[in-house]
Amino acid sequence: MSTPPTTATAKQRDPRDSWLVRAAVLLAVLAVSFLYVRGCQEKSRPITQDEAVEIARAEVTFEPDRYNVRFIQQGIPARGYWGVSFVDDGPNGVPEEVEVYLVDAKTGDVRPG
């Protein structure tokens, strides 16, 4: 015949069995993951969108009427670029001339897109 557990045996439970400890560990892992991801995002784009437009504008061979900017990641591992397109509209609003440049988001190097 077995004996019922005593209070001393109940106190020897592993702390990992508690739902409160499990929730705290999960919350800590999520917090560390969030901070890590935020830190990586900020380091990947030291060149701002406005700086990329100014860098690319120096390469344009005409006076653009408008421009468009997008952040693009290329390659493995991914490397960030600002894609900047400049457009010269004709008399009917139809684009007559378009030039596209990729500006490296880390170094500011420009290459034709």
Overview of this structure, please?
- With 113 residues, the protein is α+β, with helices and mostly antiparallel strands.
- The chain has three helices and four strands, in the order αααββββ.
- The longest helix has 25 residues, at 19-43.
Concise structural overview:
The chain has 113 residues and is of the alpha+beta class. It contains three helices and four strands.
Residue stretches low in confidence (pLDDT < 50, at least 5 long) are none
Number of strands: 4
In percent terms, what proportion of residues is strand? 25-35%
Mean pLDDT: 84
> What helical percentage do the residues reach?
25-40%
Total domain units: 2
CATH fold topology of the largest domain: Nuclear Transport Factor 2, Chain: A
- SS-based class: alpha+beta
Tell me the major beta sheet. 4 strands, antiparallel
Total helical elements: 3
Q: Architecture of the largest domain, according to CATH?
A: Roll
Strand order of the largest sheet: 1-2-3-4
Element pattern in H and E: HHHEEEE
The backbone outline, from C-alpha atoms, is rod-shaped
The rounded distance between the terminal residues' Cα atoms is 82 Å
Please state the CA-atom Rg, rounded to the nearest Å. Answer: 28 Å
